[in-house]
Amino acid sequence: MKTVRFGIIGCGLMGREFASAAARWCHLAAMDVRPEIVAVCDANPMFSGWFSERFASVRQVTQDYRELLANPEVDAVYIAVPHNLHEEFICAAIAAGKHVMAEKPFGIDLAAGRQIMACLKKHPGVFVRCSSESPFFPAVQRIGKMLENGAFGQIIEANTGFLHSSDFDPEKPINWKRIVEFNGEYGVMGDLGLHACHAGFRAGWVPDNVRALLSNIVRERPDGKGGRVPCLTWDNATLLCETTNPAGGERFPWTIKTQRIAPGQKNNWYIEILGTRASVRWSSVHVDILEVMTCQGGDQVWGQIQTGHETAFKTVTGNIFQFGFTDSILQMWAAFLHELHHGKPAQRFAGCATPEEALLSHRLFTAALESQKECRVATVLVPYEPVSVINNTLFANIQQGISNKKGAVSQKP
């Protein structure tokens, strides 16, 4: 089995999730490649200490990411740092010849996303992907196969989103995700948006335009020191987009919601696709239940499928058992290592988010900011910007979608 030696830059929650996934790699039943964590970097020694205490494989602990990138024992890095550091850290890792998995939004804004793409073009031998777990839930894998097989007929409407309540308490102290200088002007869109878009982007849905409604609900928060400070980031976002189904050429509305303050929610991914031949509904609140509607004798009949543990990458867990968030993390990392090792995804919907998809999300969120500011529909410009031949399917769909669009007006760069 091939071993890929990893460094982790940013030892917070998601860094620990990756480490936990690496520790249970034996749970995957048929992998021919595995990760080994050999180096960690964080400005806070307490965070990096968690790794060195638990993983004997960690041989380098540093507060300087440059030292980690200079380590010849490191083959690949996972970068999980605040958004304002993405461009600097990701570009430095690419230039150092390290393969990269990085957190969304892959740069604090569109300009940063473009710089990352430009750097990647100069180093085409480096494999780079963006973190997004949502497509790896078994129900979403089924939906992906339905999309590939044209099971929906003409798509009438799609609704996707990521809703949670992490900021529901107005007295929760502010952190970096609520500060524009660190999180960016996208607010909740930068933090959660790619999760809500990933499956649609992989299906080739490229938004033509967007009408955005953005909400700043809690305008100040405790600073953790006895005072209060402004909270200027967008808490909730609703994006009404118009897009094209590359399979049939029909245009349809796609509504994307991301919310940090979602009454009644804990942490809910959802997908709904309505079509002329079939429709589906899924929510991670009831993670194993996929609702499918078909027409039977003229009647529209909703039925339920319990998906269980039907994963893209086989595990030792039996198919009848439930699937959870940590399982989606393990599946995402299996997808990253598989594609790095084999040069292509195991399946179309079993691949990590590409830099091109991350850049598409930047264009969508930038247009959403313009829409909110000017109270109008904003056009989303999508140029053909490949950095590799690995994701040609997406770009074939994008190009077909562009050719089907009529009268589109480009958004100013």
What does this structure look like?
- The chain is α/β, with parallel strands linked by helices.
- The protein folds into 2 domains: 2-130, NAD(P)-binding Rossmann-like Domain (Rossmann fold); 138-321 and 354-404, Dihydrodipicolinate Reductase, domain 2 (2-Layer Sandwich).
- It has 11 helices and 17 strands.
- Strands 16-15-14-13-7-12-11-8-17 form a 9-stranded mixed sheet.
- α1 (13-23) packs across α9 (325-342).
- The chain is globular and about 65 Å long.
- Residues 384-413 have low confidence and may be disordered.
* CATH domain topology of the largest domain: Dihydrodipicolinate Reductase, domain 2
Strand ordering within the main sheet: 16-15-14-13-7-12-11-8-17
The string of secondary-structure elements, in order, is EHEHEHEHEHEHEHHEEEEEEEEEHHEH
Summing up helix and strand content along with how strands pair, one would put the structural category as alpha/beta
CATH class of the largest domain, anyone?
Alpha Beta
User: Quick one: CATH superfamily of the largest domain?
Assistant: Dihydrodipicolinate Reductase, domain 2
Any guess at the CATH architecture of the largest domain? Answer: 2-Layer Sandwich
Question: Roughly what is the average pLDDT, rounded to an integer?
Answer: 92
Largest sheet: 9 strands, mixed
Number of strands: 17
